[in-house]
Every structure is written in structure tokens, then in C-alpha cells.
TrEMBL record:
GO cellular component: nucleus
Gene name as annotated: LOC107926685
Protein source organism: Gossypium hirsutum (Upland cotton)
Pfam families, sorted: Pkinase
A GO term for molecular function: ATP binding
Highest taxon listed in the record's lineage: Eukaryota
Recorded family membership: Belongs to the protein kinase superfamily. CMGC Ser/Thr protein kinase family. Lammer subfamily.
PANTHER family in UniProt: SERINE/THREONINE-PROTEIN KINASE DOA-RELATED, SERINE_THREONINE-PROTEIN KINASE AFC2
Name this polypeptide is given: dual-specificity kinase
Every Protein kinase domain range: 10-337
Enzyme class: transferase
Amino acid sequence: MGRNSVAAADKIQSKMGEGTFGQVLECWDRERKEMVAIKIVRGIKKYHEAAMIEIEMLQQLGKHDKGGNRCVQIRNWFDYRNHICIVFEKLGPSLYDFLRNNNYRSFPIDLVRDIGRQLLECVAFMHDLRLIHTDLKPENILLVSPECVKVPDYKGTSRFPKGSSYFKRLPKSSAIKVIDFGSTTYERQDQTYIVSTRHYRAPEVILGMGWSYPCDIWSVGCILVELCTGEALFQTHENLEHLAMMERVLGPLHQHMLKRVDRRAEKYVRRGRLDWPDGAASRESMRAVLKLPRLQNLIMQHVDHSAGDLIHLLQGLLRYDPIDRLTAREALRHPFFSGDNKFRR
């Protein structure tokens, strides 16, 4: 058990972020003489429980992650007036915040490669410990350093207002760490409850077929596409539309999967096929699906070199059937990751 008071050792500097769980404050730790991030969790039962799971997972991961290079490190935790407070090392911005502050401009392919390698190393490390993150997304991947450099950006000049458009920011270092282990779970049989944030949710989760380690791999595939394009691959809030978007980008869902859907998902299937466009909620929904390009075309629009290797890797990460999907270790051996890395960690 940690200290029992925020005031005892920490001086609050600023608010770093806010979420449904509560908020994160940047604080000065007087004992350690360093800046830390303190996650203060709302005093509501479900968030309290998630925080206790997160603490257990962080301690578990910390025991095995000797260099502390993959996952955010927990410094301490305490209960303050029924608010669980978790003290973390202070890191830089999330990949999502970095993209947003950069007008959603894409990352160069060498940076995507280095981030992808580190992300898959973290996922492989977790899966070896029989842990499934279940909520991988750009918001939960933090750059270790907040430092960035400005580089000329000629591609963006037509899209953005004058002044901002001739430069884009890039992280000075590509080093990342994964955060938010409140939804992390041990691998068990027959896990069918809904996991993952919508845009990064695997088809087997939507179809209620049960999920395991491969649901993390699907999320990694979606994240890599987003880093290459600057925008989430599947921008939707509705199950049938989401599945139709998958078919538009990746080709038809497998019939054997559509036959195994659970009761809640039966309404998305008709005569052994996805009930689309007949089941579409609106014209707007149909348009949102139709405007999506095939995966190969999408990547080739944004990536100059290594496009072929990246497309091949993504096709392995985004296979519909979780049994056929690459594992994290298999993905790390893919030729895409043997390319030269021009970014410093």
C-alpha cells in the first residue's frame, strides 16, 4: 500500500488529461525529486474495480519488464477519500494527441515501422504472460519524450490554412510505451463480452464469437493504418456499418464466421451474407461505406516506399478469422520490420 495523502509528497503542477475514469495530474514528487503523472480515479464502483485490476496488471508486468521499456511504469498507489490514485512515471503525449495537434497529418513510414515494432514487442511480451490488453488504440500509446522537431511539409499545403501548412511536427524520438491496463485480462475460454474501443474492435468481438489474443493484433493493424493516413480506418459507431466497412476495405467476411455469430449478431446476417446495403440505417451510412478505398489503395495513397511490405503485413494483422491472424511474434519477423530505421529511440 502506498502513501495515504496526495499532499504528503506531491505538489500538483497541472492537469494532463481527463477521461470517463477521472483525471490525470502532473505532479512534483518531492521524495523522488521527479515529475510524475497521477491518475485519480472516480469514486464509482466500476472505475474503482478497473483501477485495482490496473494496479495488479502493472505490478505483474513490471516484475517481468526488467528494463521498463514496454509498458508504463507504476511508481506507487494510494487510496485518497475513496479515490484510487496511481502514480506513474511521466511520459510524453499519446499518439492520438500528437496526430490531433498536427492537424491529423500522417507519420512517415520509417516512424510507423519503429512504432509498430515496439508496439508488437509489447503485445508479444504481454501475450507471453497470458495477458490480453483488449484496449489498444492511439490514445493508449504514449511517446516517451514530449520533444518534437519541425520539418517541411509540402504535401499538406493544399489542405491546411497558410502558415501552419508548410511544416509538420515529428517526434524527436520514436520511443513509445503502452498505458491503460484497466481492461487487461488473463486468457480464458469463452470470453464473449464486448471489448476494445469501437474503431479498433475485431470482427469476432462484434459477431459475439468469443475472443482471445488475436483481438489485440487486429487493433494493432488498425493503429498502423491510422498512423500512415492520419485518420482512423473504421470511423463508425454502429455494428452493421462497421462490418460493411470491413468488407469494403478488406473483402467479404468468411461465410463460416457468419454462420457462427451469436444471437445478438444474427440480425446483421441474411442468407449467409452480411445484410448490406439492405440493412443500412441511412443513405449517409451507405455513403460512409462507399467512400472507403480498398486497403492496398489506401496505403498506396499515403506511403511512398515499403508500401508492398506494409500492405502484406496489414493483410496478416487484419485477417478476419482470428485463427489465421498473425501472432505478435510472427508479425515481428515480417520483412516490413527489417527495413532501415532512420528514427532515434
